[in-house]
Input
Amino acid sequence: MEQPETALAGPGDYFALLKPRVVSLVVFSGLAGLLVAPGEIHPLIAAVAVLCIAVGAGASGAINMWYDRDIDAVMDRTRQRPIPMGRVAPGDALGFGVVLATGAVALMGLAVNFAAAALLAVATLFYVFVYTIWLKRRTPQNIVIGGAAGAFPPMIGWAAVTGSVGLESLLLFALIFFWTPPHFWALALYRNGDYARAGIPMLPVVAGKTETKKQMILYTVLLIPLGVAPVWFGFVGWVYGSAAALLGLIFLAAAIAVWFDRTDKSAKRMFGYSIFYLFALFAVMVADATLGLSG
Output
């Protein structure tokens, strides 16, 4: 597809390449992992770790936009991005992302620790090569497997404090991993035409809406006990556990509403709630772990 003539890019265009709305959730989950981890970390080092997570995630987004510029141009949801609009040249976006990703990993290794840097590198490479380049255009399981990339931030935050990967951080990884499919499939249900037009084999395009809704309920059911599981590991208490159970049941109710709804309204509501769910879950987790809400 012929690219539009590139205009002079401004700072806002390069900022848009970082997918700031996605990065905000990534940063928050990474910060949560850092705050609930056992041990001490200097506030300045903690700030550097969170900055590296943010920059690394943004860099992945920029490289993703470079690679997906052809499909972004035909999807209503993405056609206003800087590359399809001709505001940033594809090569500039790629260079921008590679430099930021390399810098974020290097700074994490030098200023924080090598365990956190290694996890950040793996997350970035996984998102770019496994999800963006390999899975996204080839399989309806793109979001299921590729969602692992977005599940790394709390592990990175945990490793920034502890210098290791514990069972607790693997649980935080699993939480986001199982949250990702119902979150993105809700979006895919009401953006089904977009994905079909771009040739992306999202589950609603390949298997139909009924099967997608069934899978959304299944993953949400699996997510509920995972949400409560941090209580069993002992780094949060009953305040978090009660909130997690309630948030999970509301999530399930939203998925069931989607099953019965022949319109896109419930899918849109579930997508919005799914974002709130993850923010709220980690917010209560941090509050319980750091403020001792459960006594």
